[in-house]
Amino acid sequence: MSELRVSILIPFTYVRFRVKRKVREVCIDSFTIANVSKPFRVAFTVYPYSNVRKYESGPWSAARHGASILLKREIPSWEALGKVISIYRSIKSDLLSKAREAHLAHFIDVVVSGIVAPQLKRRRERLGTELGELITAASFFESVLGNEVIKEDPLVEDVRETALAVPAGFRDNKLVIDTSTPLGRVYSWLLRVDSRFSDGVMKEIKAKL
Q: How far apart are CA 113 and CA 56, in angstroms?
């Protein structure tokens, strides 16, 4: 069976907002936010508009990459920014909690290592992985949204719906995303590590092909 070339059109929300004197323009993935197993992964699908505007879908996407498949917009455009800021704030709160827990686990490990070392080692390793994931997500959010939104709600100046095109191939019920662009690499990674995301994408594709 030959490969079907497709453009996965991911619904995004463009938002321009201001916090104090700082103005930011961002694009927020409005499909993935409701289709990931771990909320912190949303951080990897929020971008400065200037970095992704070249991927905005248009007539070229269908002509160049075959059939176009528009994924479902899961949240209204006017709710998108508030949703991701809420996730960002939750991550910052979780970071403090995990850091305290990791510090306590390390202290107990040092004091009673001869008694329960194996259990504490596993716990500390788990905490280390979770901390690393949360730190990375928080860093992404901060670079795009700014840390000002942690304490102060932004003033939204403009909102509109758009879509970003991600080239891919579909063969034998398997989707392979083109990883030649940074955007493609993000979604290829999500397909690989997040079963809820991959199930959501495949459901949309099968319904529309």
A: 55
pLDDT < 70 stretches in the chain:
1-2, 58-66, 96-129
The pLDDT score that the predictor gives to residue 140 is: 92
For residues 69 and 187, the answer to whether their CB atoms sit within 8 Å is no
Q: Could you tell me the pTM of the whole model?
A: 0.83
How many structural domains are present in the chain? 1
Does a structural domain hold residue 24? Answer: yes
Q: Is residue 68 within 8 Å of residue 18, measured between CB atoms?
A: no
Is residue 86 one of the residues assigned to a domain? Answer: no
Residue type (1 letter), 29: D
- Note the pLDDT of residue 135: 83
The residue segments making up the domain with residue 189 are: 4-78+154-208
DSSP string, the chain: -PPEEEEEEEEEEEEEEEETTEEEEEEEETTGGGS-SSGGGGGGGEEEHHHHGGGB--HHHHHHHSEEEEPP--S-GGGHHHHHHHHHHHHHHHHHHHHHHHHHHHHHHHHHHHHHHHHHHHHHHHHHHHHHHHHHHHHHHHHHH-GGGGTS--EEEEEEEEEEEEEEEEETTEEEE--SSHHHHHHHHHHHH-HHHHHHHHHHHHHH-
Q: Residue 110's pLDDT is what?
A: 43
